[in-house]
Amino acid sequence: MASPNKKPMLLPALFTMKCPSCRKSSVFLNKSIFPLGKCLALKDECEVCGEKLKSESNNGGGINYALTMMLFFLNLLWYWPIFGLSYKDNSVFYYLATSTVVVVLLQPYLMRLSRMLYLYLYIGFGHSRRVSVED
Ligand SMILES: [Zn+2]
Fold first, then answer.
1. pTM of the predicted protein model
2. CA distance linking residue 77 with residue 38, whole number of Å
3. Which of 33, 5, 8, 10 lies closest to 121, judged by CA?
4. What is the b/e burial string over 97-120, where b = at least 16 CB atoms within 10 angstroms of the residue's CB?
5. Are 83 and 94 in contact (CB under 8 A)?
6. CA gap 100, 75 in Å, rounded
7. What's the CA-to-centroid distance between 132 and ligand 1, angstroms?
8. From residue 110, how far is each of 7, 35, 51, 67, 114 by CA, in Å?
9. How many angstroms does the Cα of residue 44 sit away from the middle of ligand 1?
10. What is the pLDDT of residues 40-96, one digit of tens each?
11. Distance 106 CA to ligand 1 centre (A)
């Protein structure tokens, strides 16, 4: 599947945090989100294609907010069938608390994903001139 001349698929590359231009090399310094303090550290440039990855305006903050809110309500999908929701008791508040915990725990990953989405919006495939691909 991974022939060197084939264009790697967009979504797998996005979710495995690969460079938006060549989709081969990871854009983050650390593969894991730990240590948390460095979980958003980007490489200066891609080691495969040389695409510049660091940009002053790259924070993905707005995208992160949207993803966080989306996930917050997506938690309803599993919480409702398992624990049930009713306006008659405090279950709505339990849901809100649970959902908040889930969102906070996943926050490092969401922040990385937002940063990735931001990069993918601004850098198309083959953006770097060092990439040669037969399409
Ligand atoms: Zn690259």
1. 0.82
2. 32
3. 10
4. eebeebbeeebeebbbbbbbbbbb
5. yes
6. 9
7. 11
8. 26, 15, 23, 7, 6
9. 11
10. 889 999 999 999 888 766 566 788 889 999 999 999 999 999 999 998 999 999 999
11. 26
Burial class (CB in 10 A: 0-12, 13-18, 19+), 22: buried
3-class DSSP state for residue 119?
A: helix
Distance CA 114, CA 124 (A): 16
| The token pair that represents 85 in the structure block | 């929701």
Report how far ligand 1's centroid is from the alpha carbon of 131 (Å).
8
On the 0-12 / 13-18 / 19+ scale of CB atoms within 10 A, 14 is middle
